[in-house]
Design brief:
- The complex is a heterodimer of chains A (453) and B (85).
- In chain A, 74% of the residues lie in helices and 0% in strands.
- Chain A contains 20 helices and no strands.
- Chain A has helices spanning 18-35, 39-46, 49-57, 60-73, 78-103, 107-115, 117-148, 153-168, 173-184, 189-196, 201-206, 218-230, 235-248, 255-281, 298-307, 309-342, 356-374, 380-406, 409-412, 419-447.
- Chain B has three helices and no strands.
Chain lengths: 453, 85
């Protein structure tokens, strides 16, 4: 049943656009698979946004952060902590998927229309800022991976931009999604890297008890929490999955499969994240240091020395993949937000002529980030380190508005949040907010020498 | 698209081929479009949803969170710049 605020007033057939035609073809395939009870086919047709949001978030800075955690502190605490964070991400992303499937609208446009332009534009501004910083970090990750193969920043820029242009060229959401999904599966390279470093199974099993707890100062612990949370839940994921679910044409009938898609993405992403952590931990007993010690091709080179050239090469390829997939998904989230807030066409199913702002924003934001990494002397590593922290700090507002949308009975009808989902959602917001704010305030007080480091 | 107007079949007053093609296309299109929910059409999603009436406390809470987040973001950016030097 259509929720009341979405019920149409007119009785005539609406004018059909190319976007409608493209989406209806995808929906026809879903319909036939459902009618003919082809379960695996149905799952294959409906997976996408959840997997892409989760594997897209296993991006360059996130994988470097996990590996850096492993290299600095070993496996303890992080092996069980990463799945907990992805469980938190699942709670948030399931809401986005559900809102997108029920309302057929993206997060940006719903916030703007339902709560006013101020909140819509605040959200878009937060997203643009964090996306731009994160995209720079993605190009840095590609550059770090390529440096292992003696290739420079120019190749990283060319590769990233060529991928954006190639995936946009088809004029169909389905094509874009399947290409990016194909690329995203190479996130499993981090699992392969973990196997190649031959981790000690006993140590791995022992780390499940959350011990040993990371040492270091209070600020270091906050940084670890903020950057690891930022490696798992971010504003772009919210914008992306809701908009992509609507663009894919998902309906309330697809919500169960949307949950499978999101859960599958969370499980694979957690496994790959732990893979990067294990690979990084191989450097712990070999003078492992933080990410600052692994600038350039340092991480893959470090692994090469410790575990052989295959481990180094696989990790380097993983970084290239992680950066490339994130460039595609983060650019897409920016494009969705731009189109939704301006009120212009915003779909991969629309042609560039009909959705000029969407396509221009998609390419433009990637181009802008690419230009930054070509600036000589730009503090790329610092940007990469702080991208996740900034995302964590800005996240609570997006999460609060998302929970409000998911509880809006006028929009969601019978698909509103359950009480248990709200309790978990509010706990996630509180945890993210406290960690981000504590790190921001403590770091600031240290920077102005109010408290000692 | 075919533009010839030859007739087919021996029945009375057969439809011109062009008209048959158009009708077949329309039928195929109707069958395809019926797989979309009504509120999924672009023309429908382009209609804005009504504005929600937020309570005063909800608006105040959102503004408080907004100001807090902006302040903390400014602190993070300041720390980032200081650490660069």
């Amino acid at each position: 049943m259509t929720p009341p605020e979405l019920a149409t007033a007119g009785v005539g057939q609406p004018l059909l656009s190319d976007e409608d035609h493209a989406r209806s073809r995808d929906r026809a395939r879903v319909h036939h698979a459902r009618v003919n009870r082809r379960r695996w086919r149905l799952l294959w047709l409906l997976v996408g946004p959840g997997l892409l949001a989760m594997l897209g978030e296993n991006d360059g800075p996130s994988m470097i952060a996990y590996a850096s955690d492993g290299a600095q502190y070993g496996l303890g605490f992080f092996v069980p902590f990463i799945p907990i964070l992805f469980a938190m991400a699942f709670v948030c992303q399931e809401m986005c998927m559900r809102i997108g499937a029920v309302t057929h609208r993206g997060y940006g446009e719903l916030v703007l229309q339902r709560y006013g332009t101020v909140w819509g534009w605040f959200g878009a501004a937060d997203l643009t800022l964090t996306n731009l910083v994160t995209l720079v970090a993605e190009f840095v990750a590609i550059r770090v991976g390529l440096a292992y193969f003696h290739l420079g920043a120019g190749v990283a820029v060319a590769l990233g931009l060529a991928l954006v242009l190639f995936t946009l060229s088809g004029g169909r959401y389905w094509r874009w999604e399947r290409i990016v999904l194909g690329l995203a599966l190479f996130n499993l390279l981090f699992l392969l890297a973990a196997i190649l470093v031959k981790p000690d199974v006993g140590t791995l099993a022992g780390s499940l008890s959350f011990t040993p707890f990371p040492g270091g100062g209070f600020n270091t612990l906050l940084l670890l929490l903020a950057s690891t949370i930022g490696a798992t839940v971010t504003p772009w994921m919210i914008f992306f999955q809701q908009s992509a679910s609507a663009d894919k044409g998902m309906t309330p009938a697809d919500v169960p499969h949307g949950r499978y898609d999101t859960a599958l993405g969370a499980v694979i992403a957690a496994i790959c994240g732990i893979g990067a952590l294990i690979a990084g931990a191989a450097l712990l007993s070999h003078g492992g240091s933080g990410i600052e010690g692994f600038a350039g091709a340092g991480f893959p080179q470090g692994l090469k020395r410790v575990a052989g050239s295959a481990a180094g090469a696989v990790f380097a390829l993983g970084l290239i993949e992680a950066g490339a997939v994130a460039i595609l998904t983060i650019s897409a989230s920016t494009a969705y937000a731009a189109g939704e807030c301006i009120g212009a066409s915003h779909s991969f199913n629309a042609s560039p002529r009909n959705a000029g702002i969407f396509y221009a924003a998609n390419v433009g934001v990637a181009l802008l980030a690419a230009i930054v990494i070509l600036i000589p002397g730009a503090p790329l590593l610092s940007i990469a380190l702080n991208a996740n922290v900034l995302a964590t700090v800005l996240l609570p507002v997006s999460l609060v508005l998302m929970v409000m949308l998911a509880n809006d009975r006028g929009l969601m009808g019978q698909w509103v949040n359950r009480r248990s989902t709200n309790i978990v959602g509010i706990a996630v917001i509180a945890f993210v907010g406290v960690c981000g704010a504590a790190y921001g305030i403590d770091s600031f007080l240290q920077a102005v020498h109010v408290v000692g480091s | 698209m075919r533009t010839d107007t030859h007739t087919v079949g021996d029945g009375a007053a057969p439809l011109p081929i062009r008209e048959q093609d158009l009708q077949a296309e329309e039928r195929a299109e109707d069958q395809l479009i019926m797989h979309l929910e009504r509120d999924q059409f672009v023309a429908e999603t382009a209609r804005p949803v009504p504005r929600a009436a937020l309570s005063g406390s909800a608006v105040a809470g959102l503004w408080a969170l907004r100001v807090f987040v902006v302040l903390v973001s400014a602190m993070v950016i300041y720390t980032f710049v200081v650490n660069l030097r």
